[in-house]
Predict the structure.
Amino acid sequence: MTVPRERDAEDCLVAVQGASFGYDASPVLREVSLSVRARDFIGVVGPSGSGKTSLLRLLLGTARPQRGTVSRQPGLAVAYVPQLETVNWNFPVTVGECVLMARTERRLPWSSRSERVEVSSVLDRLGIGGLAGRHIRELSGGQQQRMFIARALLRRPQLLLMDEPTTGVDIASRHDMLHLLADLNAEGMAILLTTHDLNGVAAHLPQLVALQRTVVAAGPPQDVITPSVLERTFGAPMEVLEHLGIPVVLDRSWTASS
Amino acid sequence: MMEAVLDPFAYSFFVKGVIVATLAGGLCGLIGVYITLRGMSYIGHGLSHAIFGGFAASSIISLNYYLGAGVWGLASALAINRVTRSRRIGADAAIGVITTASFALGVALLTFFGNKGPSFDAALFGSIIGVSAADVWALLAITGFTGAVVFLHYRALLFATFDPDVADVSGVRVARTDALLMLILSLSILATLTVIGVTLVAATLVIPAVVARMLTQRFARMLWLSSAIGAACGFVGMNLSYHLDVPSGTTIVLTGALVFGVVLLITGGRRLQRTGRLDDHRGVAPAATA
């Protein structure tokens, strides 16, 4: 299934066409078609094991489809923010050292004056200025996520890919994060993130893709957050209400039993 | 008392031994930081055993030890790294399979054909008198090369160690960086085997790095601290080896273990937590202390 929108070829940053991917004999993604254009802000929703992270790997180019194609705009600058759960928080690096990792072009171990100014400026912008000297474990979940966004921004990406960026962060931090991402998107950066948080994240994004090994539905939240699509995606009956024009999902099996 | 301490420095074999032990300790301390943080602490143990296979093979065909064992060790290291990165089996299993087979082959070759090079005991536990001038020059060259690699690839090595997946999409050639690390690791183990021995070289990679991790939260500081601790343990251990008449590898490792115990005693158990799951990149819940 393809995202049902007309795409201008020169606007397309990454295009996945009929891609299938798996580990060993078990397929994780089947016949997935999806394209990301400049200024897109897309949320990929689906339960654990639906292939969200594998789709990110295809978009990043760290995995190759066994069938189908993934094409990227030549010279595309992509940055990736990993899941907090996959990070080794005992690793001996400070926030400043972690952010500076993005500057891979420089050979010398120490940072230049312009790099220090840039790191300080991006940390200030993300509201974690003054934490550059702290060890990464000493930050809250929201601050840790901002640190990785800062590292990504230092690469000046055209496309930012994020794996479950709101997992492990509190409600206030999630709210701030969505505003920050909306600002970055408004400045021209395309963003694609994965999430399983339908009410807290997905419902607030302009475009969604429901994934269950293949694309179940794609489009604005009103078209994707529907009982039929959600049941096919998550395998459980769900009710969808509307509040201030935003869809709100209720787990029907839970509400029925309580 | 002072005379007794300085007495062995009158012998050139001891001076060479001390130089090699100090350099080897510093070198292993430096590389050990990357190895422990990558969850490959066991690789030093495995690779030294693998190199023993190359040592035996090159001894039998009268090939230069550094060339034969070096190529053997590098091939083993690259194979381990490739299997580990593929995530099909864990690093410990990959090291266990590849290196113990190589060690067994070395023992079998020496049993069949006899040993024409350094003694079996010296290869296993290190020897204070087994150090030649060529060993000193080889170690100096390898230390210089390793220092240059770490300096010039500092950011790539750090990023590929901390988060290889993100590094890969951020312009770091992770496969090449990994291969470079395996090269300097193989060369370092090769150059230190004569003094420290096959069975004990792993400790010189792990102990200084773990002690340094207990003392600092910064990567750059951990690098030089670990190197300094390794060098100090090499120097003191080699002196103890002479005075106690015990194999040098044993005294170097025991000195490192003593330093670990003292630092643990001074800093307390909380610092030891920093080294807990040092290599675990999965399932570590982020703290929310701020």
Remarks:
- Residues 2-275 of chain B form a domain with the ABC transporter involved in vitamin B12 uptake, BtuC fold (CATH 1.10.3470.10).
